[in-house]
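Troubleshooting: if your tokenizer reports a length mismatch, compare your output against this known-good record of 503 residues.
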Amino acid sequence: MRRSAKCTLLALSVCLFISYTSCVQKEGNYSMKINVIPNPKELVGTVTSNSYQSSLYPTQLTCNENTWEIAAEAFQGYVRKVHGIDLVEGKKGIELIKDDGLQSGSYKIKCDKNVKLYASDVTGIQSGFSTILQIMEKSGTEMLIPDVTISDNAEGTYRGLMVDLARNWHPYEFLFDYVDLCYLYKINRLQFHFTDDQSYTLPSDSFPKLPTEDRHYTKEQISKLVDYANARGVIIVPEIEVPGHCAQFLSKYPEIFGKNGIICAEEKAFEALDKIFGELCEMFPYSPYIHIGGDEASISNWRSCSGCKKYMSDNNIKLIEDLYIDFVDRVTKIIFKYGRTPIVWEGFSKKGNDKIAKDVIIIGWESYYQNPKDLLASGFRVINASWKPLYIVAPSTSWTPAEILDWSIYGWQHWWEKSMAYPDGIQVEPTDKVLGGQICVWGDVLAKYDSSEEAAADELVLIRERIPALAEKTWNINSTRNKDNFMNSYIKINALYEKMKAD
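Known-good structure output:
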């Protein structure tokens, strides 16, 4: 059975949703309650008795931009799943209009004689589709949509979800569920932690022994997933973790990567990593970002490696800490060579801030290796993945959606006394160098489940409860949305998500 018993909670949510959000018809006039996450910047319409005046529209859609067709097809697929209706060609329903005056990623919806969706690019169209999907209902054979004008744009450019696929195996179909969830809430970055000590879940032609038996995806599966996400405006950020969390490298190819609990820092290892990351870039052609890991590495083990000691001597590196910084620098340069932007975990010390290229993006998560203030002062762009409240270590997460709604992308917190963010937190001045925020979902405890499907299903429940709050706080950075209003919207949209998930 794919879904766990926890999903009975979803049935309750559906019942609450039906009782709360049903459209009301009085003497031929329609009214609807509007529930949208994240909240649009501007929403204007006629309100009567806490509901918006609404109209019926034929189930039609017209798209005159060739580059928007795959986005339109994805939207049509969701409408078919949710409402059981097909959107056919026609201008009396939803019309897509290119408006070069709108900034990239923004959109405008104007409902009058038809539903006009304006955007300057496909990113804006995809965000507009997400909003329409949330506010539309079906009445008979027609669409029921509020008579509103919505103008909207994102404030945080990086709105992310990370899922650990390596510690606990995730069945392939769940990867599409994460894409659907991101699409619905306008989460535009989906990081997959593909490798760790437990398994290497990617295919490899150059190093065919690397993929873990019965725990890896095929090239064909990755290709299908990549196209699916691209049609929905979700950028996949693939991660191969180096130089730590590397047991699969060491057990399969010790003659290249060493056997000392960390990938060796020597030329043959760097040459192999060049091939591996090159393959990764080929598998993810739409991904401008490649994550290389870069934290929690047992760098002291390099002291016992003759090859690493020779590399240090040849490159005039005196200290192990400096060798670690050099390793991160070497691998990020490989990523730049392939025309992508490297992302790393906050893992190197402040000493590395003058060595690592400033175009590298840093995820600040623990505030142990570095203070986010120092990263920003050094010129790095930073993604806020503050352990508290943005970490989920399934199934025993500690932080609630309400706590995420009280969080800011400019604030870091932690429960651990060794973190610089403990106990009072770290607050940085607002800056566009903080790109946004990301929820990180780790599978350390999930391995105790009897089946990977049960584990992934329970994990997905935790994610879908929290991602809407992250969406609200990264789309609208200074959001002060009422929590009751938010939860009412969540109940409705969560029921919608249950219908739209991939088969």
